């Protein structure tokens, strides 16, 4: 699935329209509290401006109701942030395709950067509107997608804009290129043994992923609250644990399909309340007493999972093993993270909570790849096709 990257096109004297993911957290004073998403786009941004290109950046932020007057969803703070990181002025347009955007695009000079206002302030973004997409497409000579977190979506900036730029170069940025390399290519041709570790609360969120990976992996390890639905499917006692009773039949089917490939926890760390100071006990899987809920895999499961990871050549992890934000129910997630960090395997951490856990535990630099997109990485693990990627130029 190799695609042309931004470095494969001549940008000198040309205008590049780049879709980035500047969906950053803001505090009540509209200060950015975590600028990681801006920093991660820097290699693609610098590739354009260092080679004399003119750069227009577009992104969404939050879920505004198409209300351009709502300052808490404005991308303006990202212009100041990016300006500091680049040590140069970054222009900001107060609209996306209106008079201010048109004037500022026209005024752009080689090596300069402009950020457009939040794409979602325009209803045309979510609707994939052709007129809105055409207006954006008319701004530039080259399209670049560096927003992996939204690659599974069909918003105008992801699909209709590059479609409207037919005949012009359409490429990926370095972030999206890396995600494709790991998530798509590593799964298509994994070194074996290939082990997947799936956690999180709901089987329903991961059904398609489990199904797809059971067909590809040598082992699929299940942790998190969704393990209790599997436990229920095996006739186990789950106490007050979080379960999806309407997914028990499905869990039975997955157990039958998985056979020896599917590894479920053998013990559970449970508590009689959802807090660190509750009464705790470790019990065998399927033996959680009434009044207690499972909050983490137990120590034997953690050891078993770590041993399985140790022999792997490719590891994919998506979803924590327990309530990793609340000691001591972070032990299972820690053990898995440590095993992955110590392993020589190609290790791919899906976005969302697993990415947060690996960062929080300090192992991010000891794994091969931490995905920047939770929903997008899950969709890729499901084997979904991405229209936003497919329509870009092949390498």
Automatic annotation (TrEMBL):
This protein's UniProt keywords: ATP-binding, Cytoplasm, Glycolysis, Kinase, Nucleotide-binding, Transferase
Family affiliation: Belongs to the phosphoglycerate kinase family.
GO CC aspect terms: cytosol
Subunit-structure text: Monomer.
Enzymatic class: transferase
Chemical reaction(s) catalysed: (2R)-3-phosphoglycerate + ATP = (2R)-3-phospho-glyceroyl phosphate + ADP
Keyword Lipid biosynthesis on entry: no
GO biological process per UniProt: gluconeogenesis; glycolytic process
Coiled coil: none
Gene this chain is encoded by: pgk
Sequence positions that bind substrate: 21-23, 37, 60-63, 120, 153
Residues bound to (2R)-3-phosphoglycerate: 37, 120, 153
Pfam families, alphabetized: PGK (PF00162)
Binding site for ATP: 206, 294, 325, 351-354
Protein name (Swiss-Prot/TrEMBL): Phosphoglycerate kinase
Pathway(s) of this molecule: Carbohydrate degradation; glycolysis; pyruvate from D-glyceraldehyde 3-phosphate: step 2/5
Enzyme Commission identifier(s): 2.7.2.3
Subcellular locations according to the entry: Cytoplasm
A Gene Ontology molecular function term of the record: ADP binding
SUPFAM superfamilies named in the record: Phosphoglycerate kinase (SSF53748)
Keyword Kinase among record annotations: yes
